Each structure stands twice: as structure tokens, then as C-alpha cells.
Fold these 4 entries.
Entry 1:
Amino acid sequence: MDKEILDLIYHEKLLPENHSEIVSLKLLKEGMTNSNYLCITEAGSKYVIRIPGYNTSEMIDRKSEWANHHKITVLNLNTKHVAYLKNSWIKVSVYVENTLETITSRYKAIDIACKALKRLHNSDIVFANRFWVSDMIGRYENIVRRNKVQLSPLYLLLRATLKSNSDDFLYSKIKWTACHNDLVKGNILLDSSKNIYLIDWEYSGMNDPLWDLASFILENELTPSEEHYMLEKYHQDENLRPESQSIIALFKIYQDILWYLWAKIKEYYGSQYGDYSEKRIRRALKNYANFNCEIFMP
């Protein structure tokens, strides 16, 4: 067991007193933002210990994460948390065995994602913070400039074009809704009782619900037919906004350049992601080249 993490758990009294005798502690995954440890106690209880990555508080609004995590509790969408340290933002949650990974049908997985997102988007929850992508990009660009991080010329070209053409269009169309904003694979869980959970609310905030759809589509690399199915499943009897396809297409491009910036900053601080950032910016450029820009051109 990792002695440093073990000592931290005991020192900070992260576990319930009657479950404090730890028999197993192992790294679940070295995430791109956090490290997550599976902790098993003598009583058989299982917890996930989340340790934030180096300098992530510079890039993530942890106070909003804390507040939003509590607000969505009424929706039964988040896993039960045991401890949350406001000084270090270490979080302890009850472990959920994810059965979603055993589902082979991509369409069944889409059904589950839509059910979770509809529950969130149709709620009357209002987060105090907004996740507006242009502001997020500006925040990351400030970190880039301050640290003289080298960016690809492809990024500089694409960002300048997007800023002059699409920012105002997107902002004028936003339906401010409580959103998760980071639907990477693994952030949707399904337990053995068919309860659905969304985890990792670090980027949560008020945004357009189409951002969450675009995020799931992009991060799970849905095919065009799967994407069409998801939009039909999510909206059902509701009418799609006339500009929905254009908004989703733009959101995909913005997501790739946002997470490109994020990766470049993390690489500057010593993380190694291989060609992750390069793939992000090249996909953004490809999607932009295929996008019909006429909808927001004067």
C-alpha cells in the first residue's frame, strides 16, 4: 500500500470511525486531473480517495465544484461523499462498481447517458457559476502567457478565426442550464441496481445542455448514426432548436481546443500525455474545415 496516502487518510481521519481499519489501498487510475485510490476497510466498505493533481486548483474552480456537488445531491446523481477537505480538495466517496463497462451495446449506453442528462438538465437546480467556454479559454490562455507555454500555430489560427466568427453567435443562443460539462468515458456509472451516477463535477456550472451532448458524443467517439440516435433519444417529443446541429458542431470544436490548452498547461507542469494535445487540435481543425460557417457569418 502507498504509505504516504495511507498516512494521509489516517492523519486527516478521512474515513468513518467504525470503518477506519484499512486492509487494501490501490491506485484505480492515474487520471489526467486527479489520482484515484480504491480503499477497502476491514469491515468490507469500499471508498474512492481522490487526490487532486499538481496545480489543478489554478485551472479548476474547486469552490464551485464543492457547492455544485452539494446542490445536485437531491437528484441522486452523484455518488455519496464521505469527506471533502476544503484546504486540499481531497474527496472521499463511496465506491460504485461500474456495470456500464460490461454493456456492449453502444445504444444502450447512450440511453443511460440521456437519462442521466435529462434528469440534470430538466431540474430546477441553478449553479452560482457559469461555464462559458470563451471565458474558460481566456483563463487558460492567461496561464499559457504567464508561463510562456508554446502553442501550435494551428491553435493560434483556429482560435483567431473562431473568436471573430462564432463567439457572439454561441453566446446569443445559450439556454443557461445546470450542466456537468465533462462527459468523458468513466464519468457515467451504472451500479448493479441500475442506479445511474455522474461523477467528477469539477467543471460543472451553468451552460447550454447541448454542450453536455457534444461532450458525450466527442469523448465517446460516437459514429454519425449513434450521434443522430442520441439527439433523437434525448429530445424525444421535444423539438430540436433549428440551430442545434450548428451549436453542437461548434461545441465539439471548442471542446477540443479547450482541452488542448488544458493539456499543454499540464505538460508544462510535467505531465506526459503523448500526442493527446496534438490529436485534439488536429481534430478541431478538421471539424472546423467541415463546418458550414454561413450560419453565423454576417
Entry 2:
Amino acid sequence: MQFEKLTIATKNALRQGRFYIELLGFPSLKSNSEELIIQAGATQLRFSSAETHPVYHFAFLIPTGSLEASIDFVESKGIELLPLHGDKIIHFDSGRSIYFYDPDGNIAEFIERPKLNYPGKETFNISDVIRINEIGHPVSHALNVSDELISNHGIRPINPKAFRENFCWVGDHEGAIIVVEKGRHWLPTEIPSEYNDFELEYAENNTHYKFKCVSGDIISNQ
């Protein structure tokens, strides 16, 4: 699946704008006190002001081979990385990642996925971000929600047999919804996940989908 537009809540759109536009250098599509829209590669990422703001987890896909350079880039901006067991780089079967907080306390991630057929490179700039690759989705019943995403929303996960009661990676290397049981900690922190409302537009097999999540439930499919 390929993320086209992702909308999440923010406590302070102007502060997020200073971080994502002025500090990191993402292109700005709109920035005011109510809304921030940046272009993250092929994905529009929108922050909409809200009275309540949960902690989100989302990932930016970057070229294979650029992760070490992305560390230098992030740290040169004065942003501290979130290590796991003392290691800045976290390894998965499908790639490698680094994590950091944004001003809202969201857990942002840069991830490279070698199995994708994108040109690799050893340098990094924010213009190298390919698209949003993940969004975390805490729910009450991870397996039930994952089944709904597969049955009703066109998502074809790589390995549904690996789904667990508290963690389901629903998608593929291009993009995935990380469906977790509410309360499970967000890697690499000890922060428990909580319901986080969002809207997502994406493409799967050249078909476009859109849905909205509120309090852990999928409430629309447009």
C-alpha cells in the first residue's frame, strides 16, 4: 500500500511547522495556527489542531544505504535520537530504523527497506524522503481490526500468519498500518499506545481508498 495523504492531530500547528519546515526542511503546502500540511515525498502529511492530542507513531521511508547519513542529518539539527539498548540503529527483518520525538511528543521514524526497488544512496537530505511508510493504530482488539482492514479496505498484508493478539503489521514494505493493542509500548520507548484519531488515503493495486479512525474504530470508508 502507498500512503497518499495522512491527517493526524496536533497540540500546536505553528510549533510543528517550525520543526518540520524550518528545522527539518520539509516543503510546506500550508502553515497556520490551525493546520500544517507538509509534503513528505509522495505523501501529504497534515497536522490539524485539536484540543486533545495523543502520541502518534509514524515512519518516513528513506533510500536504502542512507540511514547513517540520516543520523548525522538529524543530530546536526540538535535532535536527540531514541536508542534501544544503547543502539541508535534498530534492526528488523525488513529494514533498519532510527527514531526521534517531534515537539508534540510523537515518535517519528526514518526507515530504510532494502527489499524495495528504490535507488540507494549514502547521503541524506530531507528531499530524499520517499513517502510515509507507517502509521500506528492502537485498538481494543488488534486481530479483529486487522481482519476488517483486509476484508473491507483492500489491504493485502505480506504475512497475516504472523499476526499476534497485540501486534499486527497490516500492509507491505511500501506502507503499513501498525495495529497494536492499546497500551502496548511504542518502540523504542516505554510510552504506552493510546487511541489516536487519523485519516488515511492510500492506493492498493492501483485502487484508491480512504478511511477515518476515531477512538480506535474505523468509522468510514469513502
Entry 3:
Amino acid sequence: MKRRSFIQKSLLLTGGLVVAFKSSFSYSIFDSGVITGKVMAKGKPLGEVLVSDGFSVVKTNSNGVYKISPDAKAEFVFISVPAGYEFPEEKKIANFYARIADGQDYDFKLTPLNKNDDKHAFIIWADPQVKNKKDVAQMMSTSVPDTRQVIKDMGPDALIHGICVGDIVWDNHDLFVDYNKAVEQMGIPFFQALGNHDEDYRMGGDETSDRTFKSHYGPTYYSFNRGKAHYMVFDNVRYLGVEREYDGYVTEAQIEWLKKDLKEVPQDHLVIVCLHIPVHNSVKNNDAFYAALDTHKNVHIMSGHTHYQRNVITKNIFEHNHGTVCGAWWTGPICEDGTPRGYGVYHVDGADLKWYYKSTGEDRSKQMALFSDELTNQKRVIANVWNYDPQWKVEYWADGQPKGVMEQQIGFDPLAVKLYLGDQLPVTRSFAEPRKTDHIFVAHLSADTKKIKVVATDRFGEKFESELSI
């Protein structure tokens, strides 16, 4: 049926146009320059729901109605999905938005969870970064089933969602479809942030570099809620108009939107900020970004990009810079700092957050790697404790005798040196090189020591133990 004929028949039958639109939205034709619509659940209006065009933030009234005058640069209208409702999705890709078109307004239909969502979990995937079908095959055979098992282990009633913090692909945007299949197989709603390798090159400047990403995943910055946690996703990759040249920057428009959005979030709620490039050392205007977040005191940033694992606290904001799903670009089992391929697993209880790093193919209890070598008249043991932060404690025992705390150093992971050092290694992608990290711990032992045990205790009091015969 031709589109014009379909519209005419729909108007005759219903008095307004209702069509399937990204699974959970409908729109009707009107002539005003103002977008208006409703947010509904089971036929009932929802008040106090935030609706935005990325510039303005408005609330629905008691009848579930919103009105918004879209900015000239606005491309989408989207909702900040409120707590207590399912995340709209299409084959598990989060779908909370509609693309703005002339003469249309948009209704959003939500489904109640019918359970309290104060307790829930989320998974952070950083940098799947698939370049070709071989990379895709590795992702599908390792990372996807590993994540599915973690989800299964949480139980059938657990509320879990995922967030990919960028570099979904590696310049090959045809592979967005393969990533989407991975998400569908994992079976939980996934939200996406834009990474530098997800951008379009040779199409102008920063304002046009995200067209393909938007065609798959919608707006590049937005928010949503679950329980007492407010999630915010940002685009902090600024394309400089020359192929593959970019910097870390949060645009002024996003910072202004952040202030408006966060103004509606209770002070005692947990705030989770998700983006690609780490803020603490690689975002040029991070002071302005931190200042905008300063209204809330329980803020965690989730980032990727670096292909190493690092936890940093800046201005009382905890940044989790994640080791990557692809490790060192699918060349070996570890990142450049020795962190295994993997992802972050987070548990929310009210406004409290707990977490661990899950190494792909390993039990969650594996939180370190031990190495030893022989020096003149002594032995040395190196422990790489990749999810370390300043509240961890790393202790060791030699032949069953407690020896105290290991010395923290900045150094290389021995396995990363073995696998990646030199212009011929790794064979397929030789640009990967071992990288120094601050989560290296060292102990010097007598030459006759036979066995070392290391116990790392995280900030939550959980102990992780590893032994090595030397």
C-alpha cells in the first residue's frame, strides 16, 4: 500500500495517524511548531516524566502530556525512562527516542516492571572494537557467552541492563549489525555511547561525524533511571574534521543539558555517567564537566578508550576506566597493562554501588596475576591487581609466613611484555605495546623461598587469593 493512501485510511479510521515506530512510539500529524505528546503506561498517563530534545528538558503534566519547542539543531525527542518501568528496546537495543520530523508529535508508551527496582545490576562493555569478521567471531565465541553466563548466574528475576561505552566497531560501520546481534544474544537491554572509531570520517566536522551512529542508536547523549540510580550518557569525542583526528571534549550544549537534566534528580540518588574517553586526564574541559556534576555527591564515571584498567578519584568523583572487551585489539588474552579481556559488573542497592571486573573466560574470583623471577641472591614476585583502587590492600605470605603489605610500583605486566613488546609483536596488530600501570605490586624474597601467596582485599572487604610456586 502506498504511504499516502495508508495515511488517509488511518486518519479516517482513527482520527489520527498511528504507526509502528521503533517499537514503542506513535505520532500524529499537526501543524504547530511545538512538539506535543503523551507518556502512557497501560493506558494511563504518567506525570513528572522528563522529555528532552537534547537542549530543553520538560516534564509531563498530570495527564501525561508534554510540550517542547525543539531547538533548530535538535534531531530527536527522547524520554528519560523513569524508575519502575521496563526499558523500551528493539531486539535488546535501547529505544527511547523518536527522530524529529516536521509536523509530528510523539507519544511514548512504557511498560511497568511490577517489581521494585532499587536493587539491580548493570554491565559495562568498553571497546568491543571489531574490525572484521574474524574479530566478530572472537567476540561471539568468547565475550558474548561469558556475559550471558554472568547474567544467568544472577538469577531469572534479576534486573540487569548493559551499557557499551564506545568503540563498538573499529571504523567498519557495517559491523554495527554484528554488534547488535551480540546484544540480542546477551538478552538484556543495552545502551550505547559513541566512541572515536564509531564516527564518520570525511563527512565534515564534529556536527556530522555521528550520522551513522545515530541511524542505529539515536541520540548521542541522554539519560534514564532505574531505582535510585540516574544514568547519563555523553558524547565526549570531538571530531576535528581531519580523518581520525579528535580530542576529548564535552560540548557546551551537552553541559547545559546536563545541568537541566540533573536538576530534576534527587540529591540522594546515585549518578552514573557513561562516556568513551576518560575524563580525568583526557577531556580538555573536564573542570567544567566536573563543576556541572558537583550538584550531586555520589557520582561514578564509566569510561573506556585506553585499553587498560584504571580507577581514579577526582574531585570526589570515582572514574572507572575499563579494560576492554577486545583486550589489545583481539590480538591476545590481555590488554596492554596486563588486564585480561573483560568488562565491569556493577550491583546497585538503593544509592549504594558495588562492582568487580570480570575477566573473559575466568571465574570472577580471578582478580590478579602472579609472576616471579630470580635476582642476585633473591627472588622477586610481581602481582598485577588490575581492579585496584586506593582502598584495596595487597598482602603476601612466603612459605606460609605472613610478610605484610606488598610494595606498589608503576611498572609493566610481565605477560604483556612477553606478548606485545617489539615492532613484530603481536603478529597481526604490532602497534599494541606493553603499557606501564600503577596496579603492580612487588615483593622481594630470600632465594630459598618455595611458595608465595597473595591476598588482595577490595574496598568491600572481599578477599581474592592466588598462589605461586617459585
Entry 4:
Amino acid sequence: MASIRQLPSGRFNVQIRHPNTKQKSKSFPTKAEAEAWAAQIESEHLKAQAQDIEQTPSISFEDLGTRYCSLVLKGRTSFTITKQRIERMAQHLPKRATAITKRDINTYRLMRLEQVSSVSCRDELQLIHRIYRWAHREMLLDETRYPSPCTGIAMPPTSKPRNRVVERDELELLLNELQPIMRVVVELAYETAMRRGEILKLTPKNLHLEDRILDVVDGKTGDRSVPLTKRAVELLRESLEACPSSSSRLFPVEPHSVSTAFRRARKRAGLDSDVRFHQLRHSRITMVARKGFNQAQIMMVSGHRDVRSVQRYTHLNVMDVINHLD
């Protein structure tokens, strides 16, 4: 990937890094020249990769998937999970990426449906299709000669959407079963509708408590500002006091630790399995909708950019609208 920076001399320096290749660096008097050189080098690199895939027998599906992870998912929380999933799938798809056929994918689909849920199988097939689409678009792999082997394959059905709303008394049961730091993370998710990863990346620099706002940087839908309830401000202020430095994370725990703690607390509290961490986000968005907020205001809280996504997260029932009729 190319990065351009202006030097103290006024010239523009370009640095290009790709996995398993030597770094390239060059300086130019203008930014336009720097961008043109970077685009040329990137184009040459992509063409070389495409030729590598088409002409080298050793380029397997696992190799292609690994490149996808390195170039697209690097730095994201999904990187490790996706890479491990590709490694597992590659054991059943040992051919070259360009030699895998629809028959291979269908055989894999039938095998996996006997081992995992239809949702898990669907996710794996969608990942395979996504990798090939990326290769067509970014690596200039000929889509006519090497189409995605998932095209035309019958996808397993999706699961029914969860419409469970976690009420405040249920939240209290959960909080009573959690350790202090996990308790704050869970209650903050309930108060802000933030995603797990967004909460765990927070640092003091992201907080503007006097204005009751915090900044989400590089979230799922990009950067955004989150409005805070009074309770959320209290929780964040307490966490801020315990934070050792302005660059430290407010909650130095791993995502899987939060999920594990949540599941164990749910079990101890005697709540059903539909009470999940992500349902806290659904619950807050539903509560905002119950207050009569319009679509734009709800999207300001949720961070969604698509109205259809908001509708999937808003679980209103007929009793929620009766008081607004008269």
C-alpha cells in the first residue's frame, strides 16, 4: 500500500509496502507526481499478482485467501478469525484457486451442512465468493476465464432475525454477575448502542464528556460521533479517572473475553440464549424509536447509513405506537 507524506523540504515522499516484497520509496517535487508514480507502481504490482495467480500452479485457494486477509483485513478485528476460517476451508479445497469448480463447492457445501448450521455454511460460501470477487476487482484476475465457483450455488437459508429486546431489569441481573470492568462495558453498550469493538477501542482522546459526545474512529461504518445519555457520561467519567494515560484504552480487555464473560453471566442470571451482547445495541435503538425519534435521529444514535439496517434493528410492537395515535 502507498503512503504519501510531505517532507520538511517541501518535497513529497512516497513509500510503498507490499507483503513479501522490498519496500519502495521515492520523492517528488509535487504531490501530483508522487500520486502518479504510486498509481503506476500499484498497477504493476496488481498485474504481477494476477499473472502469478494464473501461471503459477502452487497458488492455492489458501494462498489467495491469505492475500485477501493481508490486503483487505489487516488491522481489523476480523483478520484473525477470517484467516483461521480460510485455513480450515482450504483443507477441503486443496486445488489451485483457478481450478476449483462449482462441483467442488457444492461437494463442500453438502459436507459442511452435515457438520455445522446452515448459517455457518452460508457464511463460509459467502466468504469464498467474496475472495473471488476481490481477486477479479483488485488483482485483475480474468472473471470470464475464472468466475467465482460459488456463482449459481444454492445458498443455505439464513437464520431468522433476532428481535429480542433486553429490558432494564434483565440488564441488572446480568450486571450483578459481572466483574467491574465487564460490568461497565456491558452497561455502556446498553446505554450507547455502540458495537463491542467500538467500545474496546475507546481512549480518553475520544471523549468529550462536557458536550455528552464521544468519537468513534474507524468503526464499521467509518468515523462518527455518538450522543451520550447521562448514565453513559457517568460510566465514562469513572473509567477515565482510572485510565493511566491519554493514549491508553479505557477498557484493556479482548473482544472474546467480553463475549465469554457475557455468556457466563447470562447463564448464571438464568436468562435465555437470545440475550446476547449485540442485542444490547438492538435494545437501545428500539428504546430510542419508542421515544418517537424520527428516522434521521435514530440513525444518529445507531450510526447506520442505510434506513433498511435501522429497520432491522428496531423491534417495535403494536403497544409501542398506541400512545402516539391520539
